[in-house]
Write a structure and sequence with these properties.
The structure is a single chain. By secondary structure, the chain is an all-alpha fold. It has one domain: ABC transporter transmembrane region fold. Helix 3 runs antiparallel to helix 4 and helix 3 runs parallel beside helix 6. The radius of gyration is 29 Å and the shape is elongated. The two termini are 58 Å apart.
Length: 224
Amino acid sequence: MSDSTQVAGEDFMTEREKRAKEDYKMIKEEKAETGRVRFSVFIYYFISCGIPFLFLLLFFLVCSEISLTGSRIWLAHWSSSNITESSEQNSYVGIYGALGIGQGFFLFLVAMTLAYICVNGSTVLNEKLLANMLRLPLAFFETTPLGRIVNRFSKDIDVIDTMIPRNLSWFFQTSIAILGTVFLICYSTPFFMTVLLPLAVLYVLIQVSSLSPRTAFPAALTET
């Protein structure tokens, strides 16, 4: 092989390496949003789910908790009463059973409403993400790997479909249950109200200090 052929081959390889480096530089590095989730992200998600249905969900949760708390209070009142006649016992049983049936009915409505809210929110976010993706300039697709784009419509949407609804359900149910328990304690022990505010402040401080400072969340919520 002549020297000119070797030089041409080296120049060709050098040119290929330069092009490869230029193509590599064109691809933008993916940046994941970390830290505390901004309040605007929650508002955007709730708006996508439908604000009226969220209030309806809270209403059903409150009604369910009222039924549960009412059944506990009624049971305590029943156990402290001296009932001898069967008619009075039947009335107590009927009211207690009605409260239990009411709780089950409202829990069913909670499950149905939550399912509709989450499906509606995921559909709206998916449609907005697709609409924004189709309006992007061609340079975006030249500098963004295809797998990263597909990931927005697969993994991120899957998180919105599965993880967020489950956590949202736990949050609402736990919050309402805590309020119901606190009300029941205050009803049975009024002295507890004097220490309720300091305990609430202490709880919030512990909760804030124990939260992880770096929390990643789906990019689909920030790109829609």
